[in-house]
Protein 1
Amino acid sequence: MAYRNGVYAAFDGQGKVNPTESDIRYFQLLKAWAEAKGEDFQYINSHDKTRAVRDSSKKETLQRVLRERLSKSKVMFIILSNETSYDRGFLNYEIEKALDLYKLPLIIAYPQISDRSINDQWATLEKRWPKALKQRLKDPKRDDLSCLHIHFKKELIKRSLNHMTVHDKKYIGARLCYEN
């Protein structure tokens, strides 16, 4: 079995070519924090653990590489913005495999929300959930899920990455939250 120490970041590219127009900008920010000199932000990118694939690759090829990356991950970090689609692209596939096959804990980060408590914004945040996430989080039979919902803020992300791991699932539940 592969050594599972990576962070698998997932987001909706919104079908955009320009990265500043999609959620990839938040993924790029994570990488920038990890690469900055003098920072103590630890981030092992699961996407760097396998060969690169092009968006134009066959669907089966993309899915195989995504599964390989997930198999080497300790946690899935999902970025859900106002523009996240309910049912587009590979995000639903990634969530499905992360939860059902690889049993990864999830950190679900919400950019573009107010500083109010996550619990106070729950009804709004649920509307951002892609189909695969909604189906699993709302399933009363899924008592194996470990999902932490946070604001997209550096210190909360850093803390979350230290606590959520497939190696020690001490936090079980679909509605776990860190507050500011």
Protein 2
Amino acid sequence: MSARFSSNVPACVVETCYEHEGVIVPNIMPLKVLKRMRSFTVRPDDLFVVTYPKSGTTWAVHLMLLIKHDGNRSELEGKHIIKMVPFLEIVEDMLNPSTSALRIDAAEAMASPRILKSHYIPPFLPMDISTNDPKAKVHETNIMNQPRGLQPPI
């Protein structure tokens, strides 16, 4: 067991992750972003797409972009999805996460309305969307892409 983890983890996890509040987090989601995410300024017209990894996130984001642009795909041509819908907790340079620019910075500078993406669990999301009086309108939509794929094999 590594001193950085509260339980036994494989060597590949020790090399590529850290533990924060009992949750194993990949190094490409640095602690400085995780802490900053809690104070991220939420706007009333923000739309957050928050999903488990590999559960249809990109598909959902594409749908949201098409809705935002009234189905006009020509407005999306030539633009990379990560620039239009930033993945808040990921760094720009995944090979050098400790010195990389943060995508959350780009998100804060975006014009409204924003579509924002995250795989964080609720306790790590911005405080403004986890209170009884959220600044952003929170609508829960469950997205599942073959849910059995999200469960560890038995």
